[in-house]
Amino acid sequence: MLRTLSRVSELPIVVKQLQKNAAQAGVSKTNNYATEATVQVNRPFKLHRLDEGPETTVKLTKDEALKYYTQMQTIRRIETAAGNLYKEKIIRGFCHLYSGQEACAVGMKAAMRDVDNIISAYRVHGWTYLMGVPPAGVLCELTGVQGGCARGKGGSMHMYAPNFFGGNGIVGAQVPLGTGVALACKYKGNGGMCLALYGDGAANQGQVFEAYNMAYLWKLPVIFVCENNNYGMGTSAERASCNTDYYTRGDALPGIWVDGMDVLAVRSATEFAIDYVNKNGPLIMETNTYRYSGHSMSDPGTSYRTREEIQEVRQKRDPITSFKEMCIELGLINADEIKAIDLKVRKEVDEATAVAKSDSELAPSHLWTDVYSNNLETKIRGTIAYDIDHVSERKGVNH
Amino acid sequence: MFAWGVNCRNIRQHNMKVSVNLARGLFNALKTAPPALARSHFTYYPTTATSDKGDLQKMNMFQAINQAMDIALDEDPSALLFGEDVGFGGVFRCSMNLRDKYGKQRVFNTPLCEQGIAGFAIGVANAGATAIAEIQFADYIFPAFDQIVNEAAKYRYRSGGMYDCGSLTIRAPCGAVGHGALYHSQSPEAYFAHTPGLKVVIPRGPIKAKGLLLACIKDPNPCIVFEPKTLYRAAVEQVPTGVYTSELGKADILREGNDVTLIGWGTQVHVLLEVADLAKKELNVDCEVIDLVSILPWDRDTVCNSASKTGRVVVAHEAPYTQGFGSELAAYIQEKCFLRLEAPVKRVTGWDTPFPHVFEPFYLPDKHRCLAAVKDIVNY
Ligand SMILES: Cc1ncc(C[n+]2csc(CCOP(=O)(O)OP(=O)(O)O)c2C)c(N)n1
Ligand SMILES: [Mg+2]
């Protein structure tokens, strides 16, 4: 199924466009498969204080299609592996899965340039992988072993990579931080911008509004991205927010509503937004999405919504299935290629899982490393009988 | 530049040396810890209710807290209960069924906005109603810090006594739980103890939790109850079902002894009770164990009487060493009991590092570190 049922009528247009495009551009075909297609985004964008919005007709090359599919599938498998590791009690504590929301991250990443940055909350396993950490680095961080991208010192919510300022456990705190990153981009004049991600629940934190205001005053290149998955823990968006049109909540800030289950729509909106914020200052982008799992592993996720609701989204709007089917229908990817990717992804994540299970924790002496850069007192206080020096082990990637 | 490089290496070498010592202690800790690891860095010592308290019922700590709030809502029609997911019972089930019983006008969910929750609660209390606000984890209380410290604590003083928010009680789960890592484990009591105008208490189990919560709700000052989250289910006692309060500002002597005074609060009390057993068995040292219960105001008489009797005091808490509440106790004891002390007051605490993820068992002032402190202080 290419589109949700109500949009079946759009199908012929897409196919026609594809044919036209292939004919006009003389796109080469190998084995009767296209190498490029023109696609209409799933659902129209909604705009706030904007005269023009993102492109609704977008190009998709075969390479891109393969890449996005691989990325989304890898995230899904990492999350499945994480869920299993948690159930096996190998991951302890907190573990927030991103399954269902893959198209948001993959779409944004597809539009990001090398100079661009991102900061998010705690649902970041997928983002960490997209920003360059291999699946083993993600899963090892989750199991708290030294192969983790934060050496096991951060755990589920705290993963980092160059240009990725991480996972944050304090809901909303990352939004002003991202705005500060944008200020630095502007000041340095490097042409970069920052995506500051938060959820529909976090959208009600006061500091989010403080950040909007500063960003607008100073025309900062920041895209405030509200990933609206309809729930903040057990509280549905309507019960927590007086206005659930999150893209309009910035007052003077313009906003875009995006179908967050459509990777191409997210990419298109992000491309538009990157250009916009660099020229004009901040913008809010609401990606309408859904999380399949509970809030975290300790939440079965079914007490405040029905199983049918989850099932319906899985069947009708799943970002991976819908993208896969579209690519097959467009002739960009064939079933064999899909199978090959699935196998490769499964193998990579299985191997990463094995590493996450077998790798060892850092030695206890790392408890007191990297508290400060240059600890003026040199000793870490607080122990009886032990006299411990502070050690600064790692130099930040941001220097 | 070069000098710094050399310096760095020296530090590292030196560090290797001391860590052998440390590793030995840590290894012992590991060996004796049950496989569930840090989940149970303590053994729970239940309190027995005195016989004059009427009917008893077996309850864990979240049930006792639930009953306290049930009583408060029942007795006081102006009482309101709110916080993130509180309407559904809260993440730790403390407010279970209360919305059904008292209606969603009185028991409700707030959006995710701690500063707003605290400010809102202060306003409610200013207007004379009773506000019981939950901050989902003590680690999330910092967005509300300004409201609590600058508004709640100072309202009475700055209005010359015309207004106050005395009917405000804030509850927040605190402390180590075995797997909470940086943002679900902290014990921020000392930050609030630095603020005249507030009262701060920490229960060690169900009986105390219910009594303290009811006392805080009734007390005409803004109060904060930090509830050790690891005790919500693990701590089970025979709790009196009726209305009773535990006196604020009053410490409990849980075990009498003549050689060393051990002071703690919350979960740490149970660690210290076990340490007292070990000290008796292994060192033949007789420990007096005090649950401070109330951080602000704290029970100076009980503490100083005990310090004067034993001459040796060990204070233990999960929060870091520097400026932990143990610092205040140590300073005060040394000032008031100087001539009676046989050794400097010792503090066994979390380390001056962020609360760690995988290193929690090494961070906590567990029984091994506390027992080592007892050994040190008797041999001083
Ligand atoms: C300051 C703060 N308050 C509360 C929490 C507890 N908490 C963690 S996630 C969450 C819900 C957030 O929902 P949302 O922003 O929609 O993100 P989602 O989980 O849906 O991705 C809450 C209440 C926290 N981590 N930090
Ligand atoms: Mg949400």
Automatic annotation (TrEMBL), chain A:
Domain of life, source organism: Eukaryota
Keywords: Oxidoreductase, Pyruvate, Thiamine pyrophosphate, Transit peptide
Cofactor: thiamine diphosphate
InterPro entries listed in its UniProt record: DH_E1 (IPR001017), PDH_E1_Alpha_Subunit (IPR050642), Pyrv_DH_E1_asu_subgrp-y (IPR017597), THDP-binding (IPR029061)
Listed GO MF terms: pyruvate dehydrogenase (acetyl-transferring) activity
EC numbers: 1.2.4.1
This protein's record includes keyword Hydrolase: no
Catalysed reactions listed for this entry: N(6)-[(R)-lipoyl]-L-lysyl-[protein] + pyruvate + H(+) = N(6)-[(R)-S(8)-acetyldihydrolipoyl]-L-lysyl-[protein] + CO2
GO annotation, biological process: pyruvate decarboxylation to acetyl-CoA
Membrane spanning stretches: none
Record flagged with keyword Transit peptide: yes
Domain Dehydrogenase E1 component stretches: 71-364
UniProt cross-references to CDD domains, sorted A to Z: TPP_E1_PDC_ADC_BCADC (cd02000)
Gene3D superfamilies documented for this protein: 3.40.50.970
Function as written in the Swiss-Prot or TrEMBL entry: The pyruvate dehydrogenase complex catalyzes the overall conversion of pyruvate to acetyl-CoA and CO(2).
Name this protein carries in UniProt: Pyruvate dehydrogenase E1 component subunit alpha
Organism: Drosophila lebanonensis
UniProtKB/TrEMBL annotation, chain B:
SMART domains found in the cross-reference section: Transket_pyr (SM00861)
Residue runs in coiled coils: none
A GO cellular component annotation in the UniProt record: mitochondrial matrix
Cofactors, names only: thiamine diphosphate
GO molecular function, one term: branched-chain 2-oxo acid dehydrogenase activity
Keyword Transcription attributed: no
Reactions catalysed, as given in the entry: N(6)-[(R)-lipoyl]-L-lysyl-[protein] + 3-methyl-2-oxobutanoate + H(+) = N(6)-[(R)-S(8)-2-methylpropanoyldihydrolipoyl]-L-lysyl-[protein] + CO2
Keywords recorded for this protein, A-Z: Mitochondrion, Oxidoreductase, Transit peptide
Gene Ontology biological process terms from the UniProt entry: branched-chain amino acid catabolic process; response to nutrient
Residues annotated as domain Transketolase-like pyrimidine-binding: 59-234
Localization per Swiss-Prot or TrEMBL: Mitochondrion matrix
Keyword Chaperone: no
EC number(s) given by UniProt: 1.2.4.4
InterPro entries the UniProt entry points to: THDP-binding, Transketo_C/PFOR_II, Transketolase-like_Pyr-bd, Transketolase_C
Role this protein plays: Together with BCKDHA forms the heterotetrameric E1 subunit of the mitochondrial branched-chain alpha-ketoacid dehydrogenase (BCKD) complex. The BCKD complex catalyzes the multi-step oxidative decarboxylation of alpha-ketoacids derived from the branched-chain amino-acids valine, leucine and isoleucine producing CO2 and acyl-CoA which is subsequently utilized to produce energy. The E1 subunit catalyzes the first step with the decarboxylation of the alpha-ketoacid forming an enzyme-product intermediate.
Subunit record text: Heterotetramer of 2 alpha/BCKDHA and 2 beta chains/BCKDHB that forms the branched-chain alpha-keto acid decarboxylase (E1) component of the BCKD complex. The branched-chain alpha-ketoacid dehydrogenase is a large complex composed of three major building blocks E1, E2 and E3. It is organized around E2, a 24-meric cubic core composed of DBT, to which are associated 6 to 12 copies of E1, and approximately 6 copies of the dehydrogenase E3, a DLD dimer.
This protein's name: 2-oxoisovalerate dehydrogenase subunit beta, mitochondrial
Gene name of the encoded protein: LOC115624314
